[in-house]
Amino acid sequence: xxxTSTSSAYRLPDAPxxxxxxxxxxxxxxxxxxxxxxxPAFVLDARCRVMVWxxxxxxxxxxxxxxxxGTSEHWRSFYDSPRATLADxxxxxxxxxxxxxYPDQPARYQASGMLCAQNWCDMPRAGRRRFLVADASPIFDxxxxxxAVVETLxxxxxxxxxxxxxxxxxxxDGLTGLANxxxxxxxxxxxxxxxxxxxxxxxxxxxxxxxxxxxxxxHGHLGGDECLKRIAxxxxxxxxxxxxVARYGGEEFAVILPNESLKGAAIVAERIRARVEQxxxxxxxxGCQHVTVSIGAATALPAPNTESSVLVATADAALYxxxxxxxxxxxxxxxxxx
Length: 338
Ligand SMILES: Nc1nc2c(ncn2[C@@H]2O[C@H](COP(=O)(O)OP(=O)(O)OP(=O)(O)O)[C@@H](O)[C@H]2O)c(=O)[nH]1
Hints:
- The chain is of the alpha+beta class.
- The chain has 2 domains: 10-162, Beta-Lactamase (2-Layer Sandwich), CATH 3.30.450; 172-337, Reverse transcriptase/Diguanylate cyclase domain (Alpha-Beta Plaits).
- It contains 11 helices and 12 strands.
- Strands 1, 2, 3, 4, 5, 6 and 7 form a 7-stranded mixed sheet that branches. A 5-stranded mixed sheet has the order 9-10-8-11-12, with helices on both faces.
- A hairpin with a 5-residue loop joins β6 (130-140) and β7.
- The two termini are 54 Å apart.
- Residues 1-10 and 12-20 have low confidence and may be disordered.
- Bound molecules: guanosine-5'-triphosphate.
- InterPro entries: Diguanylate_Cyclase, GGDEF_dom, Nucleotide_cyclase, PAS, PAS-assoc_C, PAS-like_dom_sf, PAS_fold, Rev_trsase/Diguanyl_cyclase.
- It catalyses: 2 GTP = 3',3'-c-di-GMP + 2 diphosphate.
């Protein structure tokens, strides 16, 4: 995201600013300018106390100036629990903490010690989370000593919300709400690289609904859609936080299990198989068995110059064998079964 900075690193002049007739009035003049700014801004002194809290900042946060001026309680306007603002980090020379506190997007360092960072803020008094872009500009005295920091804020909540909605559309499957094929491909590649770096195993399950063509024929396409949604929920219900379940295509799902051995993957696969069976979705004909799935599992310890497609091919081959052996079962790679 590009940033048009609304303030710049500022050195107090030796001579009064234009418009200030007596020495010392330049501060009052600068103060008035900030007050009139339509952009939310506040200024902290060298001890992190609020010197200026302009009207736009009061509107944005729902906190009037008299509540924060002279205090270091400004964080309460933005967060539910104690946390440094960007201006605090600059004043306290804690800029090495910025990436940790603003993980959404790395902070950008600009000329003259200015910093730009963005994050979601709780905004307890405004009553609604907002996505704020902050620019923090240090102010030095004539001797070059840091005496204050101006923080200006831009509310990009609408833009961020639209961006997230678009990302959601681009990565989710419309029918089941699971990750889509594109998201699966990207995640598998990222997890493959991570497993290579960390020398950990990576497991994959391919889950395919049995005799689904016949199910569609018996229950209609809409009935088939409902069935896929129920199965998607059941599979997702077996996942841990770092696993990813995706709709791989038609009536096929894929499950990525980072740092999971084949033995662990086989246990997850069996849980998924049993859970779908327990849904007791009526089968393709009256009196026929319930809807079931077949699952192929594979595990790899990635080595340099190998590709994640090997894992997909191995899991696919195992799935094919599970189908061949009569469906409603899990199958492991041949070498593991020998
Ligand atoms: N309702 C519905 N059906 C789908 C969807 N995507 C794919 N299908 C159907 O899934 C069926 C898959 O059929 P096949 O590939 O022959 O496999 P199968 O009948 O499940 O047989 P096995 O996989 O061998 O057990 C096809 O009839 C597709 O039309 C979908 O989004 N909704």
